[in-house]
């Protein structure tokens, strides 16, 4: 639920009796690691209120300190009367581990006076200074809604006297009280022609779900109602809506069988009867073999009758009859692939050519495809035509697309870089971040490979929607350890969907900690050099041997990321530093690329002479060493440039040293790296060991480090692969969260779809599903 005021109330601090608290930043986010909500509101605090704004200013350099009050302390955020929010996660960035909350609560209020606990934590002592720590709030309880008994459905608390209602839909919200959705028995005759029911007692449609409880729970008339009910109540279902004959045998109220009749044609009064009662009803009927008729009444939408036709192909507006069809998105695949058996050729035969566009309409889904292969099998009694088609996003892969060799020399947003190489917009569900100059580099890569590189850096994948649009999303849109808290995208049951299930183990590395950091490319790594000035025009005049008593001029060079702090020697005396502008010349080689590297950091390029192939103008990168040519190729450029010189250091050699007139001397230059290298350590409590550190040059802010780290922890979970065969189920997509009710075993579980396919045969249409669930 959304509220105006949210606050953190601390009753114990890791500092002890001083109750000292200090944070660089605090973020209140939506569930699942969503966007930071604290923008445009008003912060306040019980202590040091004037600096409370530093908690939410998105600046990790400023901080808030409560000044050691020695008593309970709080800080809050007012989102405004017109902008109530629902907070799902709290992110803290503390300054020190001994100035953090140990016992605290997250509370909300609508009037800034009465506060309600949303989540509480005690004994939180595992903090690390300057490291983000995340706390996930429990989902809010469902609201209590009560309808008048004159309506076809009533909503009531199970602890109330509900014996006047005996047909209904059961649901349990996230609170201490169960909710039941109940149908007035007087209306049950409306459904006699739909349901074939064998009752175990004179009380129809009900049984106690928990035999140890006195609460009377009601069974579901139709499981398809579940998700709309959850959306209407803003709650999550955590109990199944059905039971089996075996589990309910002997109960006071027993529903033994529930069979949906196969209806080939609707009765004339079907729509009119149910339209009178559609206010809170969503009924789904189908016969998967004969006609696949679907009636659907949505909660808010008008009543409609939808016929699901067999899959069909259209090309240039003409339809092509199908004998067999299968369309699938395999695990880890980018595009959908369809294998289509066409009708035998005839007078009006349509024969698609390679790369022709096809539209495959399958139920409620429309697949936009390109012909990739075709074959014809000739037998004495038949001719069989088979076409393989793939999503139109195959245009972004070789051989249809031209490979790219390129370095992005200027900063660019990740999404913009992907859409630039694809020349089309994409559906983007990843964090968007700035790619730093010279970090994104590809050599002979297809445009789709560039998209994969960018997505993989942040823990994402590239997939294609049925309509042909590319989708970039997290590998697991919901982190594995939060699957039980999120609202599922689909609900499957053995009473309606499941035909077969196969499970197998897939054990992960059980990682409990991962460190993710920004990797600095070779050309950007700190550069520092100290040596004798070799210039023939310098003070040394090209000289490399020096006698006692002479002065040697040393040259110090450093890249833009290094600041020289000290130059010392084992003996002798340094004299005041002198200005030392210098030029140098170097032959830089380009190997099938537009990128070359100078040996020394430069301030600017003075001249370029191409020795053979000319790759065009050269641009100097921000690191002072990277050279970017206009085109790629094999070439040598003779480059004259001005050195990035930090100084010339005259060094007076002593006349003698320990009585010697020939002796060595050691010189040393010390520099400080001024470039900020980002790093983040994430922990998850149920693993066995830490994983190997992950580094990538494309990761350049906290949000993308967090996303990549969560993906690595997810991949380290112990998971099981489950393969299912269902009655045809449209709308399934890789990455969807699915909740499965298996009444035969009396259990339910959740998993994420990794692969999906639909298949039409002479016996009907089925859906094959591959998903992973927690072991």
Description:
Strands 17, 18, 19, 20, 21, 22, 23, 31, 32, 47, 48, 49 and 50 form a 13-stranded mixed β-sheet that branches. Helix 4 packs antiparallel against helix 5 (447-457). 7% of the residues lie in helices and 41% in strands. Strand 29 and strand 30 (470-474) form a beta hairpin. It is built from six helices and 50 strands. The protein starts with a strand and ends with a strand. It is flat, with a radius of gyration of 35 Å. The chain is mainly beta.
Secondary structure elements and pairings:
Blueprint: E1 5-13, E2 22-29, E3 42-45, E4 64-65, E5 73-78, E6 89-94, E7 101-109, E8 116-121, E9 133-136, E10 153-157, E11 167-171, E12 179-183, E13 195-199, H1 226-233, H2 245-248, E14 255-260, H3 270-275, E15 293-296, E16 304-307, E17 312-315, E18 318-320, E19 322-329, E20 337-342, E21 357-362, E22 365-378, E23 383-391, E24 404-407, E25 412-413, H4 414-422, E26 427-428, E27 434-435, E28 441-445, H5 447-457, E29 460-464, E30 470-474, E31 490-493, E32 498-506, E33 511-518, E34 528-532, E35 551-558, E36 562-569, E37 573-574, E38 583-597, E39 602-610, E40 618-620, E41 626-643, E42 645-652, E43 667-673, E44 679-683, E45 689-690, E46 694-696, H6 702-715, E47 719-727, E48 737-742, E49 747-761, E50 764-774
Parallel strand pairs: 26-30, 31-48, 33-45, 33-46
Antiparallel strand pairs: 1-5, 1-7, 2-4, 2-6, 3-5, 6-9, 7-8, 10-12, 11-12, 13-14, 15-16, 17-18, 17-21, 19-20, 19-49, 20-23, 21-22, 22-23, 24-28, 25-27, 29-30, 32-47, 33-44, 34-35, 35-42, 36-43, 37-42, 38-41, 39-41, 40-41, 47-50, 48-49, 49-50
Helix pairs in contact: 4-5
